Each structure stands twice: as C-alpha cells, then as structure tokens.
Amino acid sequence: MFHTNCLLRVSSLLRAARCLMPKRHAAPKTVTCSHRCMSTFHKKDTRHRDANFGGADYRTDKVFSSRSYSTSEAKLNCWNCKQLLDRTPSFFCDSCKAIQPPEEGASYFKILDWLVDYTFTLDTHKLQKRYLQLQRTLHPDNFSQKSVKEQEYSESQSALVSKAYKTLLKPLSRGLYMLELEGMHLKEGTDSVAESHFLMELMEINEALEEAQTPEEVNKIGQDTKGKLADLTELIDAALHEGKLDIAKELLTEMKYYANIEEKLESSQTLHVFLLDVVISESVTDLVVDYGSGP
C-alpha cells in the first residue's frame, strides 16, 4: 500500500511539474567576436557525403582554404622586460616569466592551441585537458602576492580561457563561432529554417515530450534527438570542410532547435529525479514518525 501511494504521489507531482515547465526555451545566445581573428580549417580526407540541402548542389570542387584573420601581424613585446615574445598568444614571457595581458583579437582556437585542432569536429577530451592545464597556471590565486597589474592580467586571462572553452565545447556554439570568424552571424528572429515539414516535426517532438508518461518514452525521445544532432554535426563538418558557409549556417539553425529540445529533455529528467527524491524523503520521514509514535 505504501509503495502504491508513493507512486501515486510521484505521478501527481510530475504531472503538476510538467504543467509548470516552459513550453519553449530561449535560443542559445550567439557568441560574438568584435574582431576578425585567426581562422584555419583543416583540409582533411573524409568519406564522401551526399546530402540534399533544399536542392542545393552540395558537392563542389572548392575546398575551404587556410586563411588568416589575425587583427595584427605585428610582433608583441613583454610589458615588463620589453623582450620580444616568441609566440602569440603568449600567456607568459619566456625571459622574465611575467604573465602577459590577453592578446586582442586572438581566436578561441588559438588561445587553446597546441593540443586543439582548427576543426569543427575537434577532440573535446584534448580541449578539456588543455583548458584545465591553462586554468591551473592562470588561476588568480597563483598571483595573490604579485603586482596589481599581474593580478588583473591573471583574472582577464583566466576569464578569457573559460569563455573560449565554453564556446568550443558544444558543437552549436562552436559552429556559430566559426561562422563569425568568417563574418557570418545567426541573428535572432531571422532563422531561415521555415519548411513546413521541419516545423511539423518539431511540434510533434514537443508534443510527445509533454505527453510522455514513462521514463522509457522520455529516453526514446532523447535518443532520437541525440541521433539527429549527431547527423547534423557530420553534415556541418562536411559543409565547413567544403567551404559551403551558407549551408553550414542553415544546418546550424536547424541544430539550434534540436539543441533546445535536448535541453528541455535534460531539464525534465533532472526535475523527475528531484521530485522523486523529495517524495521518497517525505515518505521515509512519515514512516519514521509513524513508527516512532507506536500503536
């Protein structure tokens, strides 16, 4: 009887919570870059992919070439000892070991360089490894006994590395950033994805999510969404590799919608676990009280 009542309470709370959940999530903010930065996409051998992008001819002989968008080719000098810095961006001077200010206009790829490739399908494990390595070195706690200027540079560098990592970690924000390095932006309210079949598919997914009553149903929607995002990741990578920036932009717009669905799924599952924990905790408390009160 106790088990049945507990399940009924969980079901009731979940239905109430589902009604309170927002119907739509705001689209992820586009990462902006005020400067044209270094951008190099690897030309690599990949398996040939055929795709039908609204009738557009996807296959092309044009291969995206390596191009430089650095704001300045001038060499930089250390602010402390005035020695020429060996590489840019430089976090420390090789001569006096002083921490350097962030280089204006350096791309996020370049900030997390040496272990991270300039490619859409980068290795996120290497990305995380490089991020943690830099944060251990640049953390403001390491400069508490240094000059005010060095403390400020440490905070700025640490914040910039965090921003670069968060931007490159997820395929959506990474792809949008790569387009921005090429001067293309995905503005709010100007989405080009308006085909009726696609909008209908999104509506059906959202309705299925709202009507899902069991974990199995929610997991099925989640697996389908992850599969769609994986397919889009491959297509976007191919489009960028071929220099089809307009197509990459359309695909990223589509990815944005599926990423919103995935976010809603994660929020729903988190709420489910939270409510279940609350119900179980309350039930255990009631049981202890009843047991302690005796007959």
UniProtKB/TrEMBL annotation:
> What SUPFAM superfamilies does the record tag this protein with?
Chaperone J-domain (SSF46565), HSC20 (HSCB), C-terminal oligomerisation domain (SSF47144)
Matches recorded under InterPro entries: DnaJ_domain (IPR001623), HscB (IPR004640), HscB_C_sf (IPR036386), HscB_oligo_C (IPR009073), J_dom_sf (IPR036869)
GO cellular component terms, alphabetically, are: mitochondrion
Q: In which pathway does it act?
A: Cofactor biosynthesis; iron-sulfur cluster biosynthesis
* Residue ranges of every copy of the J domain listed in the record: 106-173
**Domain of life here?**
Eukaryota
S-adenosyl-L-methionine listed as a keyword? no
Which PANTHER family does this chain map to?
Answer: IRON-SULFUR CLUSTER CO-CHAPERONE PROTEIN HSCB
Its family?
Answer: Belongs to the HscB family.
Name of this protein: Iron-sulfur cluster co-chaperone protein HscB
